[in-house]
Please model this.
Amino acid sequence: MSAATEAPPPLAPTAPEKKPPRKRGRLTPYWLLLPGILWLVVFFALPLVYQASTSVQTGSLEQGYKVTWHFATYWDALSEYWPQFLRSVLYAASATILCLLLGYPLAYLIAFRAGRWRNLIMILVIAPFFTSFLIRTLAWKTILADGGPVVGALNTLHLLDVTNWLGWTAGDRVLATPLAVVCGLTYNFLPFMILPLYTSLERIDGRLHEAAGDLYARPWTTFRKVTFPLSMPGVVSGTLLTFIPAAGDYVNADLLGSTDTRMVGNVIQSQFLRILDYPTAAALSFILMAAILAMVTVYIRRSGTEDLV
Amino acid sequence: MKTTTDNSGDVRLTQIGKRYGAFTAVHPLDLTVPEGSFFALLGASGCGKTTTLRMIAGLEEPSQGAVHLGDQDVTHLPPYKRPVNTVFQSYALFPHLDIFENVAFGLRRRGIKSVKKQVEEMLDLVQLGEQARKKPHQLSGGQQQRVAVARALINHPKVLLLDEPLGALDLKLRRQMQLELKRIQTEVGITFVHVTHDQEEAMTMADTVAVMNAGRVEQLGSPTDLYENPRTTFVANFLGTSNFIEADVDFKTGDEIALNAGGGKLFLPVARCSAPAASGGKVLVGVRPEKISLTHADDAGEIPEGRNRITGRIADSSFIGVSTQYVIDSPVCSGFEVYAQNVDRDPRLTPGAEVVLHWNPAHTFGLDAAQDADAGVESVEEDAA
Model:
């Protein structure tokens, strides 16, 4: 009996002590999430809602805009600017493919062959970021200028005839042609391709290459059957990181292109800042966002990356 | 069954060696692995056994010497042209392919179209028929190990190379896989070259064991031969436990050497002494702990004549079920180990008791005294840790 009455006291002091930290512990994740959520609400969700309401307003700058649920703006914007949309997708896709073709060998080299040069090459890949995006794009203006080295080389090799025939260039010019815009996009987004590719290549166990060789795979087969499939996560994230910003870009088309190479980003920019037709600009932005989301969803489904750990 | 009669499953290494800059991983060595045998390369980590294996596989270019498979010189062939397959340490299964495709990989690379039947048969051989459509990471360690074996064996290599294949498994599974591998080897009859640091594994599985130390083959032979007749202290200590007594050579009769150790007389068969034993010289006398009998000093008179005997005092005893392990301090050797089967235990044999250790002279082996009696001891402990 005495043992039973003595037993509770030691329990009593420990129980209340334990409870409060547990309660706080349960809420901790939400507190930690708060800054992120606030950031997302203030800088993403609210502007999106504001943008959405803008896109269904009508009116003019002088009389002010009012929400009239005028969804026809979307249809009008799409039917008027579909060539620019198409061009955006085309240019962004070309730049993405070029980035992949240029970036993959480099990422492979850094991951498997660079040895002690690895860090140096990585720095060289990132180094251009230390200069302004604008300055780097302007530099391309000089590189591709009429009578410049690139035009000269293409002329000598008679490649300009080929690109002219393909419609990538016009006459004796490279600047102010689709080729120039795609070159600018490729150059500016190349590191976004290389870095994820490098990360996924670098994670591949070197013994898998040995195992493939041991099982009668020649080096090229090893690449096709083992290395490339295992680098798919990097290929997918690299192409997304390149394609999405490239599709919405307007700086390259603005600086390196002409009126014939305007992308949807240029249209949105001029609607917002020059023509001041806010509803159309907002509707264009939404169409672009929806289109990219749709394409990305299909792409991720098709590439089936969730299987790759 | 075989169409060739040229022992094409032989592996012949001729003066093969590997240097990395100033470091010699493998000193030039000659080795012949006969067709159809289960051959183990045994040694502590860094002894050059894996490098030797990788040179056979073609994953490492030898600095000198030649590798022959049967009559074919494969020294300069890339791995994908060698009729040899490897089971890698930690398996190196392709994580993006399922088990079926992992096993079919080698067949497909050689342009074989209808692989289904072969792969299914092979998966049945390693008892993984049900798991064909799983990915490697969904399998347990033991199952992954079997996939690795199946993936290599399906190609009917002339030689199967196994690089510490059981290293990642727990003890119980390892024992089970040892028997399993031995069964598979008997069934398919392919030459197996097995690299391991586990002496018990090497002894249970292999027909022939090559003990390697510091880039050299220390001794080569059957497990029993290596255990009973070690020629160096490294082998004696690396394979099991040995007790050593430094003794002076007294005289030599026809087939026995009489020795003097701290006043006591010991006899050693000439045939079991690998050292040149001249009168007046020194010899390391070795004896395995399980060969020794213990008798309490009071009963010393009951020990039959003709047995080697030394006296000592029990320093420690530990009961481990089937046997009792004693550590005995003796004037000629401190820390003498004796394993006694637990049959008719003498209750007087407790720490502090004076005892006589005696054994049949035929169980004695003699080694060159000019070597470290503890060679190979630390390396065993290092790997166990």
About this structure: Residues 133 and 188 of chain A are 8 Å apart (CA to CA). Chain A has two domains: 2-55, 72-307. The mean pLDDT of chain A is 88.
